[in-house]
């Protein structure tokens, strides 16, 4: 069984020019959870001046109840990030570092080694809060500054004893430049050659392979995947990165047991309304397909859905 985490409210909003009010973010979280989405990434502890659309993350955390927060994740990059998010009520933390030093310095302001050296304190802070922490490895395939990333560099981080305590490892195709064979190889090697952990795959659709790469990751051993509504997203510190793999496309392809045509329609409508509010295009092919009036197909909405 493969789980899906929706990352619209973190990765999805990083490059939007129009802010989304806190109350609307909270409503989106609740709508996604109510539709059946297993988990949601709700924000980032990155500096507000560097990523303004996510400046209200602590307010979003405080607005959610403990049952909701048990299904929500927050992006962190330092032990202090974990502590501050935990004080607000968060219990699930995605500790991110980049394989490449150049991207880590652009994204987090320190070397990869410095981020890795700080991880034991982040693990301790998450444990003290009664929470869980993931090791998220950005630029697992390519870096916008250094080019191709050797698998051995990813494996070295995944094996590093300072990452012990992370229950999951997230492999990120930050630029969306990987192809299925690369994804299959790296996921399979991480599964076979590093400590046993749940593997999460985070893919972008820059070169049109978001769904294909995600399916390759699942076949190779990933048990959770990330997506964003309408393929929204990108990294402000990674030139060339564009939107995430679309939540709607991934759900339509994977058909998890909780997904019914009614739940799918609910998510498609939410996505269309949200992207209209943000003035962003909807890149989901499944959302476009759902617009068909051929209602004999149970996944069709039989109505016009906004797909800008």
UniProtKB/TrEMBL annotation:
Protein name: Hydroxymethylglutaryl-CoA lyase
Signal peptide segment: none
Keyword Lyase appears in the UniProt entry: yes
Family (UniProt): Belongs to the HMG-CoA lyase family.
GO molecular function: acyltransferase activity, acyl groups converted into alkyl on transfer; hydroxymethylglutaryl-CoA lyase activity; metal ion binding
Keyword list, A-Z: Lyase, Metal-binding, Transferase
Ranges of residues in domain Pyruvate carboxyltransferase: 2-268
Biological process annotations from GO: ketone body biosynthetic process; L-leucine catabolic process
PROSITE patterns named in the record: AIPM_HOMOCIT_SYNTH_1, PYR_CT
Entry annotated with the keyword Lyase: yes
Pfam families: HMGL-like
Classification via PANTHER family: HYDROXYMETHYLGLUTARYL-COA LYASE
């Amino acid at each position: 069984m493969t789980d899906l985490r929706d990352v619209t409210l973190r990765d999805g909003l990083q490059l939007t020019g129009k802010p989304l009010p806190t109350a609307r973010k909270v409503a989106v979280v609740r709508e996604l959870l109510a539709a059946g989405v297993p988990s949601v990434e709700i924000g980032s502890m990155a500096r507000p001046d560097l990523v303004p659309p996510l400046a209200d993350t602590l307010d979003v955390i405080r607005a959610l109840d403990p049952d909701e927060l048990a299904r929500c994740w927050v992006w962190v990059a330092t032990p202090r990030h974990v502590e501050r998010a935990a004080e607000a009520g968060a219990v699930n933390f995605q500790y991110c570092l980049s394989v490449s030093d150049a991207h880590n310095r652009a994204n987090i302001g320190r070397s990869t080694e410095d981020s890795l050296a700080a991880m034991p304190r982040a693990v301790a802070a998450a444990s003290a809060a009664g929470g869980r922490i993931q090791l998220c490895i950005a630029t697992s395939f390519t870096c916008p500054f250094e080019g191709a990333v050797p698998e051995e560099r990813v494996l070295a981080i995944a094996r590093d004893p300072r990452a012990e305590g992370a229950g999951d490892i997230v492999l990120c195709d930050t630029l969306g430049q990987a192809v299925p064979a690369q994804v299959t190889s790296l996921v399979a090697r991480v599964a076979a050659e590093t400590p046993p952990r749940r593997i999460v795959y985070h893919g972008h659709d820059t070169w049109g392979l978001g769904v294909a790469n995600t399916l390759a990751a699942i076949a190779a051993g990933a048990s959770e995947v990330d997506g964003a509504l309408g393929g929204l997203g990108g990294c402000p510190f990674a030139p060339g990165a564009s939107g995430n793999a679309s939540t709607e496309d991934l759900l339509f392809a994977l058909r998890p047991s909780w997904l019914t045509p009614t739940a799918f329609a609910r998510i498609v409508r939410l996505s269309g309304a949200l992207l209209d509010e943000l003035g962003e295009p909807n890149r989901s092919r499944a959302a476009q397909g759902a617009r068909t009036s051929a209602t004999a197909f149970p996944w069709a909405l039989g109505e016009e859905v906004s797909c800008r």
